[in-house]
Amino acid sequence: MDMETVIRGIPLFHDKDVSCEPLNGGLSNETYKLTCEGKAYVLRVFGRQADYLALTRGSEIELIRAFHREIHSPAVLYADPGETFAVLEYIEGRMANGDDLLDDERSRRIVTRLKEIHQSVDIAAVSARPCSPYQLVERYLSGADRLHVKRPHGLSPLLTKMEQIAYRRSFDKTHGQRFCHNDYYLFNLIWTLDGADLVVVDWELSGVGDVFFDLASIPFTNRFTPEQEKQWLHAYFGYYEEEQYAILQDMKYMNMLRECAWGLLHSGMTHNQVNHDFNYYQHAERVIERLQQGYNAF
């Protein structure tokens, strides 16, 4: 996609000088910082991932708009009618990092923001976006199959365990069917410059899913100790039970398995992206190796 042509076609920038530079990150989509008349914007060019996940870009844009009203997420300034890109508010600030998890107040705010997401959207309003951890894995793998990606050796037994987890979680109607972000990692959280607000970005995978899947995302990528995980659960629920800890371990496993399936799909998709260089298939193989070794985190 020619960025100059895209930018010229955006009403916000008609007959104006616009500078464009790639932003780091975005392994599923491409993101650019646009600057026009001294003001910054984000141009998000959608990848093909959503085509395989039964999640429309139109519904994603509507969710971003809803969360901009309810909790701070970037405003949608322009959405391409063809659903190929969107212009979003540029948030001046810094990405959340591991140091935030060591600060009691900032860690509490990260958990609180997640809880607000789970409580702020009526499931009836988003029931057209079912997106459980199991559906994510199945859709990624189905897409990879369609793209003739060879499934790595050792994947089948891991999927059998997924079915067992899905069965156990099917009885939890309180936390197993709630609106979830499904990509709640530190790199999708931005502190505003004054530290007063925590902005959540990248709602592509959001939908009705499992609260514990969201809860497991940060612990599994930041190598929490068992004690840290128990404190994390207590911060969210206001109390701690051993059953919560067991469910969190299952959802860390599901986060790992999602990473594997995600890598397989993207290894089969044609990429010509400017802001990363990543071997998706090797990533999937590494995840399988870790799971076979009994680990549910990187």
Rg measurement, Å:
19 Å
Identify the strand order in the major beta sheet: 1-2-3-5-4
**What would you call the structural class?**
alpha+beta
Q: What CATH architecture would you give?
A: Alpha-Beta Complex
Q: Count up the domains.
A: 1
Q: What would your notes on this structure say?
A:
This protein has 12 helices and 10 strands. It has helices at 3-8, 49-53, 57-70, 98-102, 104-120, 123-126, 133-146, 155-169, 211-221, 226-237, 242-267, 280-292, and strands at 18-22, 30-36, 39-45, 76-79, 85-89, 93-95, 178-180, 189-192, 198-200, 207-209. The strands form 3 sheets. It has a 5-stranded antiparallel sheet with strand order 1-2-3-5-4, covered by helices on one side. The chain has a 3-stranded antiparallel sheet with strand order 6-8-9, with helices on one face. Strands 7-10 form a two-stranded antiparallel ribbon. Strand 2 (30-36) and strand 3 (39-45) form a beta hairpin. Helix 7 packs parallel to helix 11 (242-267) and helix 11 runs antiparallel to helix 12.
